[in-house]
Structure formats: C-alpha cells, structure tokens
Amino acid sequence: MSDPNDNNRNNPKESGGPNDQNRERNSGAIWQGNTYRSYRDPGAQQDDSYGAYGQSYVEAVPVEPRKKKHTFRKVLAGVLACLIVSAGSIAGFAALINNGTIRIQSAGPDAAFTIVKNSSSSSSAPVANTATTSELTKQQVAKKVVPSVVCIQNYSSSAQQSTGQNGSGNGYGFGYFEEGGDGSDNGSGNGSNRSDGSDDGNSGSGVSPTSEGSGIIATSDGYIITNAHVVSGSSALKVVLSTGKTYQAKLIGSDSITDLALIKIDATGLTAAEFGSSDDLQVADAVLAIGNPGGMEFNSSVTVGYISALNREITSSDTGYTMKCIQTDAAINPGNSGGALVNMKGQVVGVNSSKIVATGYEGLGFAIPINTVQPIISELKQYGYVKDRAVLGVSGQYIDSMTARFYGLSSGLYIGSVSSSYVSAAGIQKGDVITKIDNKSVTSRNTITSAIASKKPGDTVTLTVSRSSSGQTFTASVKLSQATGKS
C-alpha cells in the first residue's frame, strides 16, 4: 500500500494514473468527529492503488491540530456555561434571601429557643428559619398559640398572699401581676404523681395555692417560660395545660432583676410556641395577648390590641434595673403574667409582665421583648441564674432639670435606696443625686443601665454625685456588684 500521507493519494489530478477522473469523481473526504476519512465508491473501476475491486477503501487521516482546537472549544464552552449557571444560581439565591423567601438559620448552640427573623429584622439574637411567612387571621393565631400557653399555680407552705409591687419610677402606681387568684384548685386528688409525670390533684398536703399566672411552652420536652414573680416564694408549682392536663413543675432558674423564670415539667410531645423577633415590631401592629386572667377561672383567654409603643423604659422599684419594654393596649390582667404577646403570624414576640394600675389609667400593659428574654432564659437553663451581670447597687428615680429646680436638686438619678456595700463605702447615700457616670451626664434612667451593661462584676465606674443637703459635689470610684437575680 502506498504511503497514506502521499499528496498524490489526496490529489488525483497529479497522480497521472489512467483512472484519475474516476478517482476524482468517486472518492472524497468526510469529517468524523476528530478525523477526516477518505472514501471510494465500491462500484468504481478497479485501481490497484485503492485496493481490491468491489470493496471500499477507507483511509483515516488524523487532523491533530483541529482536534485540539475543537476540544479546547468544548472545554471552554463547558466552563463558561458552568460559570453562567453558577452566577445565575447565586444571584437567584441571594434574591430569594433578600426578599424573605429563603431565610438562613443561625442559632447559637446554647440558646434555649430560636427566634424567627424576618428579612427586615436587624436582630442579633440567634434565629431560625420557618415555614410561616404570611399573616394569619385572629382565629388562626389563637388556634395556633393557645396550646402553647399554660396556667401556673404557685403553692406556698406559708399560704402568704402576694400583694403586688408599687413602683415609683415614673410617678404612677406600677404593679406586677402577682395578685393571687381565687385560691382554688381544680384537682380533687391527694397530689400523687402519675407514671407519666402528671398530677391528679393538689400539689401536696400542707400547702395551699397562693397565686396563679401563665407560662409559655418553649420546647416540646417541657421547658416553660414565665415571670419570676409568678413562681416567687413557691413551695410547689403546678402546670395546667390548655387541655386541662396537669403536671408538677421544677424551678430551673429565676431572675428577679428582669422578672423572668424558667420551669420544667416531665413531658414530651408538647406544642412548643414559635417565637418571632421583637425587633420586627412596629407601632400600631396588631397583637394578641394569651393567658389566664384570674387563673383557671378564665384560662386560655385571648385579647386583641395593638403595639402602643416600643422601647418603653420600665424600672423596677426593688432592683433599680431598667428594661425597654413593649407597650400594648391588649387587655392583660392579674394571671396574664408570663403569658404570650403574639404577632399576626402566630409568633410569640413578648412575655406579658406588668401594667400601670393607677386609677384613671387603662390599656397600659407591658411585655418583655422576646429578644431580651432569650439570652436570660438561655442562661437560666444553663446555670440556673444569670452569669456575669454587673449592677451598681442603687435604686431610685430620674429627675429632669425642671423637677430638679423645683426641689432644689441637681438633675440626674435620685437615689432612693442603696443595696451595695461598695456604694456605701464610697460615701454615697440615700438622697444623693448621681449626675454623671464615667464622665457622661445622666440624662435618663437608661444612662446608668447602658453604662453598666458592657461591664462585669468587679469592674469600677466613676460617679459624680451631688448632695443637696450640704451643696457638696464629689466624685467616687465604685466597684460593681454581681447580680445573680436569684430570689
């Protein structure tokens, strides 16, 4: 056979053979993916140089340069296609996140519960994704949340009735919902425990119920959030589900500073609440308050109202601790303490805790924002108390410049009581006015709370103090105390 690379083989006109014209007419070349293949018609006249008569002689002619070029194009096209698809996927995914269709889950490992963060929320609290994206009707919200709200009955061996706390922070009578209910108990047994952890009747002999409140099921295995004053002074606690089933409860931790507590019942498969970010709330949003006003007599009551205001500074008259609360006009009464304030997606956004009870005032209730609740409850679950929280150790009332002039005082925090030995050792006493903390003027009750929030017990602050009785102004360095919040 001739050399397959012979130019004459591919150019019949130059071969000089007798069948040049037939060869030109009956032979050709076909591109077959990566090579050219020449062919001859089997019916053409025999030519010894093309093989036996009646057979097709096929000659493969590799074209390496074209193969490489074609493969490179394929690879390049594939890479570009992947990049385009990937970029489109990323852009689409980002768009879904931005418009709230997809929400990323980010929950801290020690969080007692997760909070749903809508796309507009700026919350830094641990959050989670959820399927709930649209608003529900009031009826749907109630149906969803009522099973997650329980009644808590406080039994005390002393049978001491709670009387509430009259605050003086803003001049109004400010009361927590810890007035006792009617003292009744729906059970009729002897307090013996069932094998499933539930309780048929009274919580034990020798004790009587002193008060009733509400709680929110945080997890399906029995952790329940409530107010500290609901469980304060208890010898025993009983939880009544919305279905009427009862359980004895164990106190996990209580924080009197923020008025929050965590209890636990021995149960599984409970209907846990869904929690929504309180940072997403806006004034005039519709909300529902769900709880047990008056205790079991009016259990699982639902009232409807609006967000009247956000970030209302409420100061405890006992501890001097100031929190920013949600103000609502949804009807809340004694027994609603520890109950749920719920948005129209059926998400718990606050824990109802207090109201102004002065004569002539109605619809001024307050709830602790759920984003404030979460870290407190998480620490109660982990430690039984709030760890590394510093307090100054004084309580009092902020007085503005107009009030100060009227009473001949300086504006600032008027000290009503001192509970820290460090403050007393620094020469500060009741009746003094703190005008500056760390050289920052005290312009509200929250000034001192904010200055201390970033510090730990044992750290020091510098106070500028005015004493009206002597006209003296002095500075003092004061060590901060540890506030566990244990009752």
Protein described:
The chain has 487 residues and is an alpha+beta fold. It has three domains: 7-62, no CATH class; 138-383, Thrombin, subunit H; 390-482, Pdz3 Domain (Roll), CATH 2.30.42.10. The protein is built from nine helices and 26 strands. The protein has a six-stranded antiparallel beta barrel. The protein has a six-stranded antiparallel beta barrel with strand order 13-14-15-18-17-16. It is globular and about 65 Å long.
Strand and helix map with partners:
Layout: H1 7-10, H2 20-26, E1 27-31, E2 35-40, E3 59-62, H3 64-98, E4 115-116, E5 127-128, H4 138-145, E6 149-156, E7 174-176, E8 208-217, E9 223-226, H5 228-231, E10 236-240, E11 246-255, E12 260-265, E13 286-291, E14 301-315, E15 322-328, E16 340-342, E17 348-356, E18 365-369, H6 370-383, E19 390-391, E20 394-399, H7 401-407, E21 412-418, H8 421-425, E22 433-437, E23 440-441, H9 445-453, E24 460-467, E25 472-479, E26 481-482
Parallel strand pairs: 4-5
Antiparallel strand pairs: 1-2, 2-3, 6-8, 6-10, 7-17, 8-9, 9-12, 10-11, 11-12, 13-14, 13-16, 14-15, 15-18, 16-17, 17-18, 19-26, 20-21, 21-22, 22-23, 22-24, 24-25
